[in-house]
Design goal:
transmembrane helix
């Protein structure tokens, strides 16, 4: 066997192995990306757009998942769900006469519900990161409602914006309230405030 044949006999298997390894890495990366996109939905796109790179955004989302696994989350008892549902109805009924106060109450109620479910409530941005793991589909509603709530504190929100904030808070509220379902399943939110 000549030197060229020997070199080809060595290089071809090495090239094949390298191609197979690269294909395997590509498949693993693609599966991870698809899983994160499905789990986080629009939050995945938001993380990619606001991050330095797609890889960095995916690392951030995986870190959120890890933190979320370490949280001591719990489902509410039927009695707790009923109490929260009644409190939401009261808040919603007061909206007609006191829209600004009702939005403040809705924000407080959502925060209390998060706390009772076991979510840390220090800082809005951290709340968003923690909620994004299981409630990504309702997170944009929470962002919008919170923005109106902040503008409400400064007396800058219109009654129509306050009404919209109530509807958006209700979407996250219903998702967090659940119905006794096991964790890690999505709940359907209601559209009406």
């Amino acid at each position: 066997m000549s030197t060229a044949q020997t070199l080809i006999a060595i290089l071809v298997p090495i090239a094949v192995v390298l191609i197979l390894v690269a294909a395997g890495v590509w498949l693993v990366t693609r599966r991870r990306r698809r899983r994160l996109q499905e789990k986080f939905g629009p939050e995945y796109d938001r993380a990619v757009q606001s991050g330095e790179s797609r890889r960095e955004a995916e690392r951030e989302l995986q870190a959120r998942e890890k933190r979320h696994r370490d949280l001591d989350l719990k489902e509410l008892s039927p009695e707790e769900r009923d109490r929260y549902a009644a409190e939401w109805r009261d808040t919603q009924e007061r909206f007609v006469d006191h829209p600004a106060q009702s939005v403040d109450d809705a924000d407080r109620l959502v925060t209390q519900l998060m706390r009772d479910r076991g979510y840390p409530t220090e800082g809005f941005e951290q709340q968003l990161r923690d909620l994004s793991v299981e409630h990504a589909q309702t997170l944009e509603h929470y962002r919008d409602a919170h923005d109106v709530s902040l503008r409400n504190e400064n007396g800058e929100a219109t009654t129509e914006e306050l009404r919209g904030a109530m509807v958006r808070y209700r979407t996250l509220f219903d998702d967090l309230l659940g119905s006794g379902r096991p964790p890690h399943h999505e709940s359907t939110g209601h559209d009406a405030a």
